[in-house]
Design a protein that fits this description.
Elements: H1 2-7, H2 9-50, H3 89-93, H4 108-127, H5 131-153, H6 158-171, H7 180-205, H8 212-225, H9 230-252, H10 261-283
């Protein structure tokens, strides 16, 4: 298959773009539903923990996961049909409105789909028809999900960060990106760097400066890209966060809780494609 893609780069690029669009549609489901699934689980666990045994525990809510129930309009409850769920095309055909009640559909959904397609195409263009591309694409999709979820909820779900970490170690058992030893040290270094910053900040100020999800995300990126990329990712995430934070304050004119995970994810993607040239330039 890789040979076929190498012989037809234009066809391969179109195929990767379409796959990215379809995956982006699924990422919209993950971004919306996974935090709700976590909240439901926490509420159920809290209810069971607080029950003293004298009263019956309330029945769990209706089944809700990434597959069930079917997507529907939040305003009128209209179930989204297959023709209304074609990535990007359906939103354009419907002119961004529900076919039943004409309520506006957020442009964020097609933008996520388009971002997944364009970033997937960029990965293919930079890494070519190689094994690196095959494994880098799922990593990219995971980073998109984590970025959007953290922007919305300031959560980095373990359901994504921990499998991403283990996948990085598994991929590098064959040395796809770095030798396994560098991947293991990268995972340790990634976690401990932000863990140390967290505790230093807490000892000095008495406040928590970041969450444990940030540690796990940087550890996952260290497992994929090796320990040499960890300082670069920290530096890039700080620069990207500063730029976006200043722009946000200039637009909104108000302070808000600062989610650091998206900037770690953006920096990790940059390091994935351009990490070595950036290191050579910086060290030079």
């Amino acid at each position: 298959m890789l040979d076929l893609l190498a012989q037809n780069p234009l066809l391969a690029g179109g195929y990767v773009f379409l796959v990215g669009l379809c995956v982006g549609s699924f990422l919209n489901v993950v971004i919306h539903r996974l935090p709700l699934m976590m909240e439901r689980q926490w509420r159920q666990e809290a209810t069971e923990l607080l029950a003293d045994g004298t009263e019956p525990v309330a029945a769990p809510p209706e089944k809700f996961n990434l597959m069930v129930p079917r997507s529907r309009c939040p305003t009128c409850g209209h179930q989204i049909t297959a023709l209304e769920n074609i990535p990007l095309a359906s939103w354009l055909a419907l002119r961004g409105r529900c076919s039943s009640c004409q309520s506006p559909i957020s442009p964020r959904y097609p933008l996520v789909e388009l971002a997944a397609a364009l970033l997937s195409l960029l990965v293919f263009m930079m890494l070519g028809p190689t094994v690196k591309t095959l494994v880098a694409l799922p990593m990219t999709w995971a980073l998109i999900s984590l970025t959007m979820i953290d922007f919305d909820t300031q959560l980095l779900p373990d359901d994504i960060t921990l499998p991403l970490l283990w996948a990085g170690l598994l991929v590098n058992m064959s040395g796809v990106f770095v030798p396994l030893q560098q991947a293991v040290i990268g995972a340790m270094a990634g976690y401990l760097v932000l863990w140390s910053v967290y505790w230093l900040f807490k000892l000095v100020t008495g406040k928590e400066g970041m969450g444990y999800g940030d540690f796990k995300l940087l550890a996952a990126l260290g497992a994929w890209l090796g320990w040499t990329m960890v300082p670069l990712i920290v530096l890039l995430s700080s620069v990207v966060g500063a730029v976006i934070g200043v722009a946000y304050l200039a637009i909104r004119k108000e302070s808000a809780p600062f989610a650091f995970g998206p900037y770690i994810a953006i920096a990790g993607f940059i390091a994935l494609l351009w990490g070595q040239p950036l290191l050579h330039w910086y060290l030079g």
